[in-house]
Amino acid sequence: MLQLAADNLLSPIVLSFVLGLGAALARSDLSVPEAVAKGMSIYLLFAIGFKGGVSVSDHGIDVTLGATLVAGILLSFALPLVAFGMLRALSGMSRTDAAAVAGHYGSISIVTFVAASSVLSDAGIASEGYMVAVAAAMEAPAILSALWLISRGQGSADMGSDLWREILLNGSIVLLLGAFAIGAITGQDGLDKIASFIVNPFQGVLCLFLLDMGLIAGRGLREAGVLDRGAIGFGILMPLAGASAGLAAGLLLGLSTGGVMLLMVLSASASYIAVPAAMRVAVPQANPSIYLTLSLAITFPFNLTVGIPLYLAVAQTLTGG
Question: Which of 67, 127, 235, 250 is the most exposed place for a label (fewest CB within 10 A)?
Fold first, then answer.
């Protein structure tokens, strides 16, 4: 595990994140233009979705795929309940803020998923191609759990048409599933035609994107005064609890070593795209500084530097992979 951690920490992906983090903490004027960052997000989502669709086309649809999708959805519904209980026990956060934060920890970070996929690829470890569909399926259920937690206590969550639009037509979900469908339809022939666009440049674009993520996380850490010690502890403990649930589900489903590791990563990560957008619409009284700082400045760096090699080592040990 130590060797995996060392290899991951010294990879261009993680070092790019560290560069951005250090630059932000040092108050450098380094920045990535918003339009460029948006373009890189679109590229990464399209590439990972397309390659996932091609893998499913090669693999075929079977019972394990359906069962894994169901497991991912159930995890996304259940993990916010665990997160909410931990937050209320560990911190002095209000019910509204705790529920809003909890929703982030049932949903997923697609960038963490992409980084984990890259680690598997570098290690030569195969995984089920349909895990990208599981990632997309886990985006929305956690939002509904968070809203239920809030409405149960205060009746303050608005389940109006704007929120449902945010959930169902969120750009990241639409792009990920759309690219997945294109890859599944066109198969390996389609991938061969655009390999020079979505295969070869992928690692370089990911490095630049994580440079930008490091800059954002560093700015969040500079404002970490909005979090108490219990909340910061939660930002590290909750990924471990989520990964444990993902591990149990992956082993029960009989997934490969790579598949188990990716389900652990999905269960351990925290959203900072889809859920914040939904929370702004449904729960405007929740404090964005709290949920964004926790997910992006605490949990994301933990997963990237410590979590991913730890989850892979555990998956390899328990699956014999």
Answer: 67
Residue type, 180: F
pLDDT grade for 275, boundaries at 50, 70 and 90: confident
Q: Is residue 146 within 8 Å of 279, Cβ to Cβ?
A: yes
Question: pTM of the prediction?
Answer: 0.80
CB 125 within 8 A of CB 258: yes
Q: Give per-residue pLDDT as tens, 156-199.
A: 455 556 666 666 676 767 887 888 899 989 999 999 999 999 88
Mean pLDDT of the chain: 86
Over residues 31-48, mean pLDDT? 88
Q: How far apart are CA 182 and CA 194, in angstroms?
A: 12
270 and 299 Cβ atoms separated by less than 8 Å: yes
**HSE (CB half, 13 Å, CA atoms) of 135?**
37
CA–CA distance, 288 with 142 (Å, rounded to integer) = 17
Q: 1 near 315, Cβ under 8 Å?
A: no
CA distance 276 to 271: 8
Share of the chain above pLDDT 70, in %: 90
Structural domains of the chain in order of their starting residue, each with its CATH number: 11-18+31-319 (1.20.1530.20)
**Per the structure block, which two tokens stand in for 99?**
């529920």
**Residues in Cβ contact with 41 at an 8 Å cutoff, skipping those fewer than 6 apart:** 172, 209
> Which class for 83: exposed (0-12), middle (13-18), buried (19 or more C-beta within 10 A)?
buried
Which position has the token pair 């598949």? 259
Amino acid, res. 303: N
Structure tokens that stand for 46 in this block: 């399209």
